């Protein structure tokens, strides 16, 4: 294989000789020059005067008297002209992003040397005078005709009126804008190029020979530039192509532009050099189920590919760079990455993003509070934790106290956090704030001994780039050029930073090449692997947005989507024409924008190409995992833990609650994880109200209401409840107070900040509170004995190690007394009443076991021995209590048989205690292991399902 640049170097050396000092090589991009110089050096064993080399963009900028303008300033200048010409009141915020679109269109107009007066002329004139446009060929005339078939000037809509009124002013805006930029000495790229060509004097050019190497599609500016130099005898042209797509297939899109170029600017190299595509090649198509699978597979191939220098990995999807870098094996000695590392994938970018989010969406100026989500995100960032010793503790404290609207004063625990959590009110302050934060971060990379770390070098460069970009915006704000809202500035900063790349430093002409598609221009490799060769990645999906309709673009010779598809087709075929081993991988999954479809170029090569192609399928090795049954034996250590936790003889023993016993009956293993091993779910801050929190807030609201009602005595009278039911403000006040205490965790005097869902929940709890009071109206008069009362009782059981005394107990929601009966009331805000057949069912694990009744019966058993009144356990399902026939009395009995109301627990106490004793002895029985439940439904919302893998 003889690379194209080697052919060029040999031919140029043959024709010009050793002294190339008066020659300049012009490439589509800079990378090709590095390889060219290597080949040129091989042509002679004597020193050679190397030619100058530059990209076409650099050359035209050097020939220009104007400088390329800053993209943001260019939009600001256009906005001024737009406002003057249209009288529009549109803000820069609204104009900015479509202003960029307009500059892109003007850029295309200039690069293709379109007569702007004709293009932006009145649409009616354009239609009437179409025949006078002699510059239009038949295809272009047809394009304009099609435009007016689809766009009727006569039948106008409001949208069409807006388009036409703006279109009529675009010509004036275009000329005024160019005049203003010329006065400032700046230009957008197309304007700069056009001005160079219109004022070009070939006699005054610096070099004798301009050698254009490896171009393909030319815009009008480039074409005219080539023609002027050709006419002056100062140009040489080297085109890279193959007869396969320029001659053998007559209308191949890859050869569309190159054929015209070969006619207009004859090639210095003979045609015989370009019949290489048909030479033997080994081509493989490999489908992979994911993007990352391609990267993992990649380096199993490079070991078989010989010399590193002859190998290239081309990423059609540049987001694959990181997975590819992480997949490089140790035995690959030299790697050259041409693409640059995305700034958006560095820690400084995520930190800046989190800081901007904190100051925009994360801060509420009306209340002067931050949101927990924004605060938590930046407190968890590695940079914050390195710069502040308080960050971790503060984040934990906010989570524990559920502070999802913290005040800035709560967060300013040290100097760095004071800077971080000081609200910024305008764009100037926000830019200054970000610059101060970046300077603080830079201190982390000044420590000795870290300079050799490749990642620290990369991150140091990312900090420098970020500071540079934001400082540029700060200068524009300071000068008054940029005046936008804070949210627009945030979008601008994000856009500027995501477009930035950090170049990798290395020796470009040595080692395995990892590159994007555009970097492959003019380069040839013996062994080629292309990743993500999917439709939508190559060619890239969709065209760029434009204010100029497609048919008018086509008619005036501007860039269209067909141009872009033809360019990508040329890149693909030119890249593979000299390669001998070609592996093309594509992703078959249809996630997001990826349709899981191989590129059209692969299908085209399969149908039209002269080579045999093998298809392979990449699959991840799968080893089915068997979920092993988990059983925890009661070893001496586990028994010691159990005794230490619940034996009343131990100083740190705790109460064994009904919830713990219910957990044991539902799943013994869950009981072990929660109450023996002491595993807990991590604390989370959430503005969401789950069923448990909803119940807690209702319980506290009811407690607050009845605390007020019993302030002057424990008897509850009918008129007390009627009076309270009429006082909506008071009822809402109880609920607000409960929300502040249990959800917002704020001081009682602070006003609760409800979001939409929380407000709905608040209103539902008020309605439940009313329902509770209406129910109690029917029961008055009664004595409120206690609310949220903690009760307990000591029980002694027999174990293998001898007698063991435990303390059972918990918190009773409410106890009231009437006519010699103490009622144990358990409030329920969810679920539905169940009727157990007998006491045994309360202790038998099953899906239908009534665990709420078990809990209430346990409290009833405790209270039966603590006071003389008859005890009646009751379950009050608030959400079902509106029915006239509803009763909170618990009933028992077999299905389809008469039910017995439990008005006196004494009839059931002995059997309940007997079974309770057996249950407790089973828990402490060393022969009874902790096993998984057989009812899989219980696992659905279990905190420990990830451990059990069920």
In brief, what are we looking at here?
The chain is an alpha/beta fold and 950 residues long.
Poorly predicted tracts of residues: none
Oligomer: single chain
Strand sequence of the main sheet, in spatial order?
A: 9-14-8-15-16-7-17
Percentage of residues in DSSP E strands:
5-15%
Ends distance: 58 Å
Counting DSSP H or I runs of 4 or more residues, the number of helices is 38
Structural class: alpha/beta
Average of pLDDT: 88
**Overall helicity:** 40-55%
Main sheet specs: 7 strands, parallel
Query: How many whole angstroms does the radius of gyration measure?
Result: 39 Å
CA-based shape = elongated
- Total strand count, please? 26
Molecular structure report:
With 950 residues, the chain is of the alpha/beta class. The protein has 38 helices and 26 strands. The strands form eight sheets. The chain has a seven-stranded parallel beta sheet, with helices on one face. Helix 16 (347-359) runs antiparallel to helix 24, helix 29 crosses helix 30 (668-676) and helix 31 crosses helix 34. It is elongated, with a radius of gyration of 39 Å. The relative contact order is 0.08.
């Amino acid at each position: 294989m003889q690379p194209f640049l080697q052919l060029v170097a040999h031919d140029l050396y043959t024709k010009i000789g050793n002294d190339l000092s008066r020659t300049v090589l012009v490439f589509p991009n800079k990378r090709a020059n590095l390889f060219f110089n290597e080949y040129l050096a091989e042509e002679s064993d004597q020193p050679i005067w190397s030619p100058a080399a530059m990209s076409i963009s650099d050359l035209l900028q050097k020939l220009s008297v104007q400088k390329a303008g800053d993209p943001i300033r260019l939009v600001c200048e256009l906005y001024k002209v737009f406002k003057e010409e249209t009288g529009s009141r549109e803000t820069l915020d609204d104009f900015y992003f479509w202003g960029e679109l307009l500059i892109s269109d003007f850029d295309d107009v200039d690069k293709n040397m379109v007569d702007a007066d004709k293009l932006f002329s009145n649409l009616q004139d354009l239609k009437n005078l179409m025949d006078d446009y002699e510059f239009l060929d038949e295809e272009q005339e047809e394009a304009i005709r099609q435009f007016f078939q689809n766009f009727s000037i006569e039948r106008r809509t409001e949208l069409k009126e807006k388009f036409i009124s703006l279109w009529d002013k675009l010509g004036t805006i275009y000329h005024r804008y160019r005049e203003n930029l010329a006065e400032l000495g700046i230009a957008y790229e197309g304007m700069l190029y056009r001005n160079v060509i219109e004022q070009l004097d070939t006699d005054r050019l610096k070099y004798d020979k301009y050698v254009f190497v490896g171009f393909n599609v030319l815009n009008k500016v480039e074409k005219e530039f080539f023609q002027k130099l050709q006419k002056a005898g100062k140009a040489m042209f080297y085109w890279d192509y193959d007869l396969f797509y320029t001659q053998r297939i007559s209308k191949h899109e890859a050869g569309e532009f190159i054929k015209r170029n070969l006619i207009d600017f004859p090639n210095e190299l003979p045609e015989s050099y370009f019949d290489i595509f048909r030479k033997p090649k080994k081509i493989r198509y490999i489908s992979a189920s994911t993007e990352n699978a391609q990267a993992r597979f990649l380096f199993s191939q490079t070991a078989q590919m010989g010399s590193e220098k002859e190998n290239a990995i081309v990423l059609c999807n540049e987001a694959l760079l990181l997975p590819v870098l992480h997949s490089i094996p140790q035995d690959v000695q030299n790697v050259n990455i041409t693409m640059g590392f995305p700034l958006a994938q560095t820690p400084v970018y995520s930190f800046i993003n989190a800081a901007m989010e904190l100051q925009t969406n994360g801060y509420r100026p009306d209340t002067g509070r931050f949101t927990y989500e924004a605060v938590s995100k930046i407190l968890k960032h590695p940079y914050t934790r390195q710069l502040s010793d308080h960050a971790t503790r503060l984040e934990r404290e906010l989570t524990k106290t559920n502070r999802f609207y913290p005040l800035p004063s709560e967060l300013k625990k040290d100097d760095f956090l004071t800077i971080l959590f000081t609200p910024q009110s305008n764009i100037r302050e926000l830019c200054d704030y970000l610059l101060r934060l970046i300077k603080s971060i830079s201190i982390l990379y000044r420590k000795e001994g870290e300079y050799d770390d490749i990642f620290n070098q990369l991150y140091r460069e990312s900090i420098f780039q970020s500071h540079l970009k934001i400082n540029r915006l700060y200068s524009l704000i300071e000068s008054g050029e940029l005046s936008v809202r804070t949210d627009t500035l945030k979008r601008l900063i994000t856009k500027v930073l995501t477009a930035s790349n950090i170049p990798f430093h290395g020796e470009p002409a040595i080692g395995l090449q990892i590159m994007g598609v555009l970097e492959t221009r003019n380069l040839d490799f013996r062994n080629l692997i292309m990743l993500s060769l999917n439709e939508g990645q190559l060619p890239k999906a969709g065209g760029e947005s434009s204010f100029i309709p497609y048919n008018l673009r086509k008619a005036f010779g501007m860039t269209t989507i067909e141009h872009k598809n033809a360019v990508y087709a040329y890149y693909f075929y030119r890249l593979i024409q000299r390669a001998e081993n070609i592996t093309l991988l594509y992703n078959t999954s249809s996630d997001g924008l990826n349709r899981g479809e191989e590129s059209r170029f692969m299908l085209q090569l399969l149908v039209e190409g002269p080579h045999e192609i093998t298809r392979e399928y990449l699959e991840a090795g799968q080893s089915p995992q068997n979920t092993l049954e988990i059983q925890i034996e009661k070893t001496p250590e586990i028994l010691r833990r159990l005794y230490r936790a619940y034996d009343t003889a131990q100083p740190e023993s705790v109460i064994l609650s009904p919830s713990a016993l219910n957990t044991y009956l539902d799943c013994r293993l869950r009981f072990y994880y929660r109450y023996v091993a002491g595993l807990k779910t991590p604390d989370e801050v959430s503005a969401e109200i789950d069923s448990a929190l909803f119940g807690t807030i209702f319980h506290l609201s009811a407690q607050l209401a009845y605390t007020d009602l019993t302030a002057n005595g424990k008897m509850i009278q009918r008129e007390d409840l009627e009076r309270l039911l009429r006082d909506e403000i008071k009822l809402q006040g109880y609920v607000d107070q409960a929300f502040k205490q249990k959800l917002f965790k704020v001081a009682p005097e602070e006003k609760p900040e409800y979001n939409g869902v929380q407000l709905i929940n608040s209103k539902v709890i008020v309605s439940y509170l009313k329902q509770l009071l209406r129910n109690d109206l029917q029961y008055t008069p009664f004595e409120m004995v206690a609310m949220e009362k903690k009760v307990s009782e000591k029980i002694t059981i027999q174990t293998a190690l001898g007698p063991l005394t435990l303390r059972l107990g918990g918190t009773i929601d409410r106890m009231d007394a009437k006519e010699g009966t103490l009622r144990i009331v358990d409030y329920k805000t969810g679920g539905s009443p169940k009727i157990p057949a007998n006491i045994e069912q309360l202790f038998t694990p099953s899906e239908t076991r009534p665990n709420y009744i078990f809990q209430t019966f346990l409290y009833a058993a405790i209270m039966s021995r603590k006071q003389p009144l008859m005890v009646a356990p009751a379950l009050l399902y608030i959400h079902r209590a509106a029915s006239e026939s509803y009763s909170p009395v618990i009933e028992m009995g077999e299905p389809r048989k008469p039910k017995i109301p439990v008005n006196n627990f004494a009839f059931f106490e002995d059997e309940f205690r007997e079974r309770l004793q057996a249950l407790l002895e089973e828990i402490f029985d060393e022969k009874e292991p902790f096993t998984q439940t057989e009812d899989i439904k219980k696992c659905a919302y279990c905190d420990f399902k990830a451990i059990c893998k069920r």
